[in-house]
Amino acid sequence: MCIYNTELYICTCSIEIYKHNKEERIARTWGTIAPGLPYVEEAITHAGNWLIGGDLEVINPIKYDDGLDRFRLSPVQLRHEFERRNADAVFAFQLRNPVHNGHALLMTDTRRRLLEMGYKNPVLLLHPLGGYTKADDVPLSWRMKQHEKVSRLLTFAIDQTFMFKPKLHKAEEGASWARAGFEYPILDTCCVSGSGCVKDK
């Protein structure tokens, strides 16, 4: 259960407990168990020896009251928003850093390819990550201002095709993506299926 100020927010059902095989997790993620990897030292090595999972039931939506709650839509709310925008395709990008030319190229090219495939109104869901994992990180509120400003410079209209769903993370929680080796980032499925982009069968 998640209780804050005597109010219940989340219940976990069908709890499953797993042994935290840290060495295997590190080896499979980074391809090495050599010491010195910053994220490993900060978030995995000193973590507990057990992992807990299960089904979550949201009793009361969590509000951060930081001026960004309007962006934090549930999967159901996002699906309604996709319908309101008449989206026939949704493509998602999850970023930790500000949007740069490489990101913009990928976004516009992905949209172009979807249009070429016959989709009429592909919608971009930008899933910014915020929080401190390195000394030069900035607060999520400033990161969101950067994303909003840069998004207006892209070649398609923000009010029709751009959506944000920010996620705050702490260094000890890690971001919702991992690396396959040293060159290929893997976007966690939570960005896509957890954001309502994929309908349950």
UniProtKB/TrEMBL annotation:
One of its GO terms (molecular function) is adenylylsulfate kinase activity. Keywords: ATP-binding, Nucleotide-binding, Transferase. Residues 16-60 form the ATP-sulfurylase PUA-like domain. GO terms for biological process: sulfate assimilation. Pfam families: ATP-sulfurylase (PF01747), PUA_2 (PF14306). Residues 70-153 form the Sulphate adenylyltransferase catalytic domain. Coiled coil: none annotated. Pathway: Sulfur metabolism. This is ATP sulfurylase 1, chloroplastic. It comes from Sesamum radiatum (Black benniseed).
